[in-house]
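Re-run requested by the PI after the first attempt was lost when the workstation crashed. Everything re-entered from the original request form. Ligand of interest: flavin-adenine dinucleotide.
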Amino acid sequence: MNIPQSSYPRIVIIGGGFGGIALAKKLSNQDAQVVLLDKHNYHNFQPLLYQVSTGGLEPDSIAYPIRKVLQGYPNFYFRLANVKEVDTDKKNIKTNIGEMSYDYLVVATGSETNYFGNKGIENNGMAMKTIPQALNLRSLILENFEQALLTDNLHEREALMNFVIVGGGPTGVELAGALAEIKKGILPKDYPDLDTRRAQINLIQSGDRILPAMSEQASEKAEGFLEKLGVNVWKNIRVTNYDGKVVTTDCDTVFEAATLVWAAGVQAVGVKGLDAENLLARGNRLKVDQFNQVQGVDGVFALGDVAQMETEAYPKGHPMMAQPAIQQGRNLGENLVRLLDGEPMKPFKYRDKGSMATVGRNKAVVDMPNIRYQGVFAWFVWMFVHLYFLIGFRNRVVVFINWVYNYIRFDREARLIIRPFKKQNRVERDTLKQD
Ligand SMILES: Cc1cc2nc3c(=O)[nH]c(=O)nc-3n(C[C@H](O)[C@H](O)[C@H](O)COP(=O)(O)OP(=O)(O)OC[C@H]3O[C@@H](n4cnc5c(N)ncnc54)[C@H](O)[C@@H]3O)c2cc1C
């Protein structure tokens, strides 16, 4: 892999997401050789993926080259590599570009869509975890309207304009809100010869409220916002299958829809060699102690979505969100320095800064530890926080200009079918599975 031997201990990080990058930054300028491996050469700012899917932002503005984040750091190496297997006895890693040894290993591989074994949904539904997937969804949404315009079969036309989003967490809520805004503000102008009022956006939640991880106040308000935008919110319904045309549920309700977006489950991205049953918790997460050390495996740590750290305050592990990943990355960075200096490590303590979701223009909900608010102010806070955490000055400027432009013009100009999505294209779907 063309990485020189060094007298410094080698710390290998798998994954340049929120956690991996926060950790790598902490390890810069330390007496260690740091190697970061990722199967993409960019960091993906997942919270804004739904805006790519709905033409609000170009994909490049939410991605950032990993090499640039860590430019100029001495003893730092990045390799574009897909990690295939870890041998924890020999302290060795196998990747698609070769093998390498490590002294300390940090797994920060994040999470992927969990279909809970439902092949119908997996094969026919759409996911939104990666940039290629967000682009596929963008193409499919637009292709559906182009097709709806051409067909004289009313039944087919309605199915093409019927969107089913499964999962009432922030991703489902944000996507549903964005689609509703497109229906209201853009479709009538783009397709004056199509009755786009008949387009339906359905958000399906198996529980009795949307945004279940937030306060009841936030759930109620968000539901009200969605209904105002014309989204059909279905609660206490479980989707059981999707064959590409019909969505079946555990009650009598069925939906004929050309698009189903699955936002109802995630699971950790595992690594072969660290997949023994005793190492794993719910959702495939690696059990770690309060120092992010994988329990019982010498020199191996895990953080972020892939790590399950059970504490008194978080008996089921920390939420799979950016903040726990970033904070664990920073804490582990400091701990690894302490470990190299022969000092005791400090346990991780999560500082909950709150959570938020946006539903649309001037409509967001924010839960902070001591205060909750909704509406216009929440929406501005949501925008500010996302701009702040977006990596790269250029990205911040581009996203800010896009948002101002979209706000003033009621527009989303990235509604482009650059790479057509063929629903039955198995090759493309299989490629996506590797993402
Ligand atoms: C649509 C969507 C919206 C979200 N919105 C929010 C939000 O509003 N707020 C919030 O806090 N959180 C949000 N999240 C969750 C947040 O993005 C994750 O919790 C966060 O990214 C976890 O960080 P991480 O470092 O653990 O993993 P990630 O950021 O996912 O990074 C994992 C990295 O590992 C790499 N990788 C994986 N496997 C391998 C391998 N075998 N070899 C090499 N590299 C590998 C991947 O390419 C990736 O770069 C959202 C997630 C999604 C999908």
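Saved to the shared folder this time. The CA atoms of residues 23 and 329 lie 4 Å apart.
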